[in-house]
Amino acid sequence: MKSEKQIELEFIEKLRDLKYTYREEICDKKTLEANFREHFERLNRVKLSDSEFARLRESIITADVFTAAKTLREINTFKRDDDTPLQYTLVNIKDWCKNKFEVINQLRMNTDNSNHRYDVIILINGIPVVQIELKSLQITPKRAMEQIVEYKNDHGNGYTNSLLCFMQLFVVSNESSTYYFANNHKEHFCFNADERFLPIYEMADEANKKISHLHDFSDKFFPKCTLGELISRYMVLVVSEQRLLIMRPYQIYAVKAIMDCINQNRGNGYIWHTTGSGKTLTSFKTSTLLKDNSEIEKCLFVVDRKDLDRQTRLEFNKFQEGCVEENTNTENLVKRLTSDDYRDKVIVTTIQKLGLALDEDSKSSQEKRKRGEPTYKDRLAKLTDKRIAIIFDECHRSQFGDNHEAIRNFFPRAQLFGFTGTPIFEENSTYKQIDGTVGSYITTKDVFGKELHAYTITNAIDDGNVLRFHIDYFKPQDVKKPEKVSDMISKKAIVEAVLSKHDAATNSRRYNAFFATASINDAIEYYELFKSLQKERKKVEGENFRTLNIACLFSPPAEGNKDVKQLQEDLQQEKVDNEKEPDKKKSALKRIIDDYNLQYGTNYSINQFDLYYQDVQKRIKDQKYPNSDYQHVNKIDITIVVDMLLTGFDSKFLNTLYVDKNLKQHGLIQAFSRTNRVLNDTKPYGNILDFRGQEKDVDEAIALFSGKENSSRAKEIWLVDSADIVVEYLDKAVANLKKFMESQGVEYKPGEVRNLKGDAARSEFINKFKEVQRLKTQLDQYTDIKEEQEAKIEMLLPEDTLRAFRGVYIETAQRLKAQQEKDGKDKNPVIEELDFEFVLFSSAIIDYDYIMSLISKYTQPGVPKKEKMSREQLISLLCSNSNMMEEREDIIAYIGTLEFGKGLDQKAVKTGYQRFKEEKAKTEMAAIANKHGIEPVSLQVFVDEIIERMIFDGEKLSDLLEPLELGWRDRTKKELELMDDLIPQLKKLADGRLIVGLNAYE
After folding, report:
1. pLDDT at 934 over 90
2. Helices 759-780 and 799-820: crossing angle, nearest 10°?
3. Helix locations, 393-482, DSSP H
4. Are the C-beta atoms of residues 381 and 634 closer than 8 Å to each other?
5. Residue 385 C-alpha from the chain's centroid
C-alpha cells in the first residue's frame, strides 16, 4: 500500500503537469502572506506600505465563511494611509483563467491554540481556495470530512484567523476513491444530527460515469480554467441560509449544454433530470448566467401551476435574495416583460398567465379593445423580434400543447428549453382521459427537439442522491387469486391494513405518508373511515392505541374563482369530479377543514383554501424528529390526496405512499418519487403499499424511465431486495458478529463485549454490530414480512438480546468517540477512522414524554405485569436508545429512588424528576467545590450566572479562585483542573444550548 507521502508527491507532480506552479518554499503563515501580498500588489497595480498591508489583512480575514466567499468574488474598497480609497479584487473576477495558480504542501499554521499541518493546498493569486487531504487507509468519505471539520472547528484554528478563511472546497482522496465538498459554517456540518444528509460529491463524466481515481479526477476537476470556472460560476452562495453550495457534475453539464445552445443559437432542447436531483438549482443557475448575456432580452422560467410558481420563486430567492418578484396577475407579468429594468430580466410565471397574456380572444383582451386600449399582446409586440430564453419546468404537461403554438408564433426568435424528470416518449404519449376517451401528449422530443443531457432515476439511485423503493403489492389474506386485486379489497379492509402497517412503514411515525385515491368521493370516504375506525380502536384499546393524525386535500369547486381554476389546470380528476354534486364536495371539504382547525389550532375556511393548502404542505415538510423539537400533535401522519402533491412536491420527511389509484408510466414515477428523498440511515428506502396489484405497470415504468444504458439492471437498482434476501444478509451479519466475538475469546453475549481487549477489538465490534442494526432497521420498515421471516428474525435476534447489544454498542461507541475527539499525536488510527452512526440507535417514539409515561405506569399499583415494564426493562430500553444519551444516567438514578405501588401520575413523575436533577446537580457541584477547595456557595453562584447569561467569563473564573491566593502558574493549572470537572456539568445544565466562550477551555 502506498504511503500518504508517496500519494502526495505523485499528486503534486500531476498538478505540475496541469501547469500549476509548485511553491515548495511556502510552508507557514509568514511565507503564505508574503506570497499573497506580492500577487495582490501585482493584480491591483499598487504598492502597499507595511501598515496598509497589515490593515488590509485584518479587514479581509474573517471567521465567517460566507463573508469570505463574498469578498473573494466582489470588488472591495480599502482606505489607504492617505485616506484615499483603493478599489481592489483578491483575484481576477472577470477572467478566472488569467489568475496565477499555485500548489503548496505541508503548510504549518501555528496559532495560539492550534498547530495544524495541511497536506496540499491550491492557491489562486496567493489565496488558499482548495484543500486536498490525502489518506492511505480505506476510510469513509463521511469520516474524512468529519476530520477536516474537526480541524476547522478547533478554537483559534487557521481557517478563522488566517488566509485559510477563503477556503472554498475540500477534496479527500486515498488515491483510488476521491470526494469533494464545499466549505461552510459549522452548523452545515452536523455529523450526529438526525436530519442531515452530508453534501459529499463524486466527480462524473457527461454520461454519469464515476471518476474516482485521484489522477483521473484531477484531469477532469483541476485544469486551471476548469477549477476557476467551478468556483466562479458553479458555486452558489445561498444568502438566506448563509451557505455555500457547489453544483453536482450533472447539473453543471446541463447548464453548459443550455448555454452552448444559446451562445451558438442552436435551437431548442430538453434536460432529462430525475425528480429529486435538484432541477431548481440547475434552472436557477441557467437563469442567472442568461441574465448576464447581453444578447438575451428576457429569461422566462415557466411552471404549470400556482403553487409551483410560489415554490420556485421562494427557491430562486433563497439562492439569491430578491432575484425574482411575484406576478400577482397577468397585468403585473406584462409590465415586467416590457420593463427595461435589469431586475426584471429573469421572470418566473405560470403557463396560464403567459397564455392569457397572448390570448387575443380572452375576456380581458375583448374589454380592452372595446375601451380602445392596447391589449396585453399589443404591449408585448416590442418583444417579437428579440431573443428570449424560455425554460419550462416539467415540460410534458397536456396543456402545454395548447400554448405551444401561440408562444412559438409570438416569439419567433425564442429558444425553448424543457426540464423534466419523466419525459414523454412515443410509448407513454397516449393516455385514457377521465371521460374514457384516449388523449395524447405531444412528445418531449416533438416540443423541444434534442435531449441535451440525461440524469435518470437509475443514475440518481446509483449515486445515492435519491433512495430505492420497497413495493408491497398488498393481497388480502382470504383470497387466493383475485382477478383484480382492487375489486377484492374493501375500503374498510384497506384502512385496517394501513392502520396495522403504518408504524412499521414510517419507522414508528418518524416519517409521514400520502394516501393516493382515485377520486374526490373516494378521498372523502377514506377520510371518514379513518375517523370512525380509529375511534372504535381507541374505545377498545384505550391508551395503547395511538391515533394517527389524518389530513385530506383536494381542490374545492372553482365556482368562478380564478385561483382555484388555475390550480385545477393540472388536476384533471379533481376538475371533473367537482363538476358533479359540487355542493356535496364543498360541504365535505368544509368539514375536513373544520376538523383540521380543531386538531392544529388553525382558523382556515374553504374561502382561504390556498392558505390551508400551504399549511398542510408545511406540516408535511416539518415532520422533524425528535418530538421534543416538534411535538407529534403538530404533525400530519397521513395526507389523503387525489391529484394534489403527487407531482412537484418535496419533503425528506415523507417516506410512504399508499396507493388505491391506477397509476401508469410518468404519473406512476412522479407519485412514487414523493417518497425517495435522502435523509439518513433511518430512512433506507421509499415505501410503496399498492392496493391495486399494479406490478406490471411498475415494471413497464421502470423499463421506460431507466435510460437505455441502464435498462438491463434497472429493476435491480430501483428496488430493494426482498425480505427473505435481507433476512439472509442479517443471518450472515449476526454470524459474523458471533464469529468475531468468539475469535476474541469471549462468548457471544452482550455483556461479554465489555471483556473485549483493546481498542482495535472494540472498534471491530462497532463495525460488526452497526451492520446488524442497519439490516434490522431496514427489515423493521418492510410491510410484507411473513410470519416465518418474523420468526427467523426473532430467533436470530431476540428482542432482549438486541436491546442489550444496542445498549453496549452505545456505551462502547461513546467511549471510543471521546477518544476520537481528543487531541494528541498518539491517536489510534483505528479509532480515528470509525463512523459511529448514532442515528441508527435512536427511536422516534422513545422521547422524554414517553419515558415519563412508562415510569408513571411502573409506579402504579394493580396494573397487570404484562402491561408495564419492570425496572430492569425500563433501564434496558433507555440504554439501547441514543436519543436519550445525555439524560440516561439521571433517569436511571431517578427510577432507583421510586417506590413501586406509589401511583404517581405523569405530572408528578416529571416534577419529581426535575427536583431530583436539581438536587443531584447541587450535590455534584458541592463535590467539585470541595475537591478544588472552593466555597460551594461561590461556585454555585458562578455556575448560575453562566447558565442565566449563557456566557462564560474568564475573568469571573479568576475572581472565583482569588481566595486561594495562588501564583499565576498554579492558578492556571487549577483553572484547567477545575474546568475539566465543570464543563460536563455546564453542558448538562445548558441542555444543548451554546455557552459563548466555553470552547476556549474544551
Report:
1. no
2. 130
3. 400-410, 444-448, 457-463
4. no
5. 43
User: What whole-number distance in Å separates Cα of residue 136 and Cα of residue 139?
Assistant: 9
Which of 488, 464, 486, 492 minimizes the C-alpha distance to 478? 488
Beta-bridge partner residues of 347: 300
pLDDT, one tens digit per residue, over 27-71 is 999 999 999 999 999 999 999 999 999 999 999 999 899 999 999
- Rounded to whole angstroms, the Cα distance separating 142 from 845 reads 27
Q: Extract the C-alpha cell encoding 964.
A: 486561594
Among residues 155, 149, 113, the alpha carbon closest in space to that of 131 is found at 149
Give me the percent of the chain exceeding a pLDDT of 90: 47
Q: Give the model's pLDDT for residue 1002.
A: 60
| Side-chain-facing half-sphere of 619: CA atoms under 13 Å | 27
DSSP 3-state of 21: strand
Question: How much is the pLDDT for 196?
Answer: 44
Using a pLDDT cut of 70, give the percent of the chain over it.
Answer: 89
Q: Mind listing the pLDDT tens digit for each residue in 747-766?
A: 999 999 999 999 899 999 99
Extract long-range pairs of 121-124: CB within 8 Å, 24+ residues apart. 122/15, 122/20, 122/222, 122/227, 123/23, 123/26, 123/35, 124/91, 124/96, 124/99, 124/100, 124/227, 124/228, 124/231
Q: Which one, of 767, 741, 763, lies nearest residue 819 by Cα?
A: 763
The type of residue at 265 is: N
Rg of the chain, C-alpha, whole Å: 31
Contact present, 548 and 637 (Cβ < 8 Å):
yes
Residue among 704, 637, 642, 710 nearest 669 (CA): 704
CB-based contacts of 372, cutoff 8 Å, min separation 6: none
The pLDDT-based confidence of 397 (bands split at 50, 70, 90) is: low
- Please give the grid coordinates belonging to residue 410: 409570438
- Cα torsion through 534, 535, 537, 541, rounded to 10: 130
| Cα 932 to Cα 973: distance, rounded to the nearest angstrom | 11
Omega of the bond leading into 626 within 30 degrees of 0 (cis): yes
| Residue 128 phi, psi dihedral angles, 5° rounding | -70, 115
Q: Considering only 104-113, 682-691, 742-751, 797-806, which range has the smallest mean pLDDT?
A: 104-113
Model pLDDT for residues 246-276, shown as the tens digit of each residue: 999 999 999 999 999 999 999 899 999 998 8
Residue 257: HSE in the Cβ half-sphere, 13 Å Cα cutoff: 22
Q: Above 60 in pLDDT, residue 724?
A: yes
Cell of 229: 470556472
Question: ∠700-704-708 over CA atoms, to 5°?
Answer: 135
Residue 128 CA, distance from chain mean position: 28
CA distance linking residue 706 with residue 714, whole number of Å = 6
Pull the grid cell for residue 619. 406540516
pLDDT band at 919 (very low <50, low <70, confident <90, very high): confident
CA distance 40 to 51: 15
DSSP-based three-state secondary structure for 420: strand
pLDDT of amino acid 953: 79
Helices then strands, counting H and E runs in the chain, come out as 40, 26
Rounded to an integer, what is the distance from CA 11 to the centroid of its chain?
Answer: 33
CB of 554 closer than 8 Å to CB of 644: yes
Report the C-alpha dihedral over residues 328, 330, 334, 339, rounded to 10 degrees.
0
Alpha carbons 674 and 679: distance in angstroms, whole number = 13
Measured CA to CA, the distance from residue 934 to residue 978 in angstroms comes to 10
